[in-house]
User: Fold this.
Amino acid sequence: MKAPLPFLLVLLAVPAAWQLAIWCFEPKPAFLPPPAMVAGVLWTERSALLGHTLVTLGEAVLGYAIANVFALGCALFCFHVGGAERVLAPWLVALKNVPFPTVASILVVVMGDSLGPKLIVVVLVTFFPILANLNKGLKTADPVLIDRLRTLHATRWQIFRKAAWPAAIPFYLAAHEIAFTGSIIAAIVAEWLFAQRGLGFLIVQASTQFRTDRLFAVTLVASVVAMLVYGLVGLAERRVLRWQRA
Amino acid sequence: MITVSQVSKRFPGGTVALDQIDLTVARGEFVSLLGPSGCGKSTLLRLLAGLDTATSGIVQVGGLAPVEACRRGAIGVAFQRPALVPSRTALENVRLTLEIVRRPGSFTPAELLRQFGLEAFGHHYPHQLSGGMQQRVNIACALVHRPEILLLDEPFGALDEITRESLTGWLRGVISATGQTVVLVTHSVEEAVTLSHRIVLMRPDPGRIHSVSEVPAAARIGDWTAPAVVAEVTHLRRRLHGVVPAGAAA
Ligand SMILES: Nc1ncnc2c1ncn2[C@@H]1O[C@H](COP(=O)(O)OP(=O)(O)O)[C@@H](O)[C@H]1O
Ligand SMILES: [Mg+2]
Assistant:
């Protein structure tokens, strides 16, 4: 990590404030369970939590991978076929602005508790930011460089590989920062509607049973997973873009 | 080597950037296009490079259409802004040219950088190099595949006066070693005088050739203060004043 101290501060400050609130206001555990109680849940239900987390993570990662394949394919298509972006744009806008929880509900009704609805929801949520960033990044390719490559009679594919793609990489990585964590949230929401496994399912189960401590535990797990994913993207970014700091 | 006959270029907006241009450049000749901005120098160079097409007239490079010349790797270009990939080192940038055109007799990128005095900077990224060094790498990129023709558009235009003067001398050395045909676009009279065999003076609205002058061999030297250079520069500068549109002063 670039700045471990500020991160540590967050890790310490949040539980400290939480415990402080308990001491000051003494709320009922059903409103705000004390950290120790949540920690207890995390510990005793650790294997179940891990199992459900892996289910959610699996859906998120698989859906995200599919979204990336689609977005890369789409961006390549737009780059190679002049005018394709203008034809595709209205479809993408429509796709982007469909409220995904309602789509998820429809999918769940139609397809039931299978992998399909979860993957589709994850793809719907993450596809657009990836594609938008890719398209934007590809357009930042240096026109002078492209002219130089054209005088070498470079093919469209070579111009893509040598000039446009390197220009798009920072944008592509920035997309992961938003979209990869978004994929986890999307998977949770999809499970929430109808599922027997996953963090979303645990949330529904805990809330119908008024188990605030479990809700907190699940929230904590989901946040940590999202943060780890975010950290992973940051790490990849620093590695790929290390030339910038050379 | 280069033949331009009756070439006009009219842009969609209606601007006539070039009007009935005739020009020939012999093999091994160094020709500069000089003139105030907007007189069509870059447009003419882009036509030679096959980056744009003439509205009318014929452009031939080595007897071929420019695009065909490009296909054979016969053309190298360098513009004012270095066309370098920021995530590639200087050496990798020079190699980029060879990744696209493979020609027998190409220079070895590392060897070329060494000749250009950049041996120690091969593994530096462009942002770690000064403007003058970036431009030297840029020109290395343009001629590493040993094209017959080098097209340069104000390559030193963004550099400070001192760097520009020293790079002008450096370029003369490079070109006399490679023997390439060069067309240089510049608005620097000194640069044109000390590098070229011939100077094509252009005037704007519409872009036309005003006059063509031979540069005496005595003026093609490194010292910009030498009497022969100063005399030629003065002579050209007076003519340049004649082509700047009236009322365009200051
Ligand atoms: N792509 C273009 N579209 C429209 N007008 C252009 C374009 N490129 C150049 N021009 C116009 O053509 C004229 C000549 O431009 P240019 O060749 O760049 O001049 P120079 O390089 O001598 O400064 C100018 O009036 C310029 O505005
Ligand atoms: Mg110009």
In short: The pocket of magnesium ion (ligand 2) is lined by residues B 41-42 (CB under 6 Å). The radius of gyration of chain B is 18 Å. The mean pLDDT of chain B is 93.
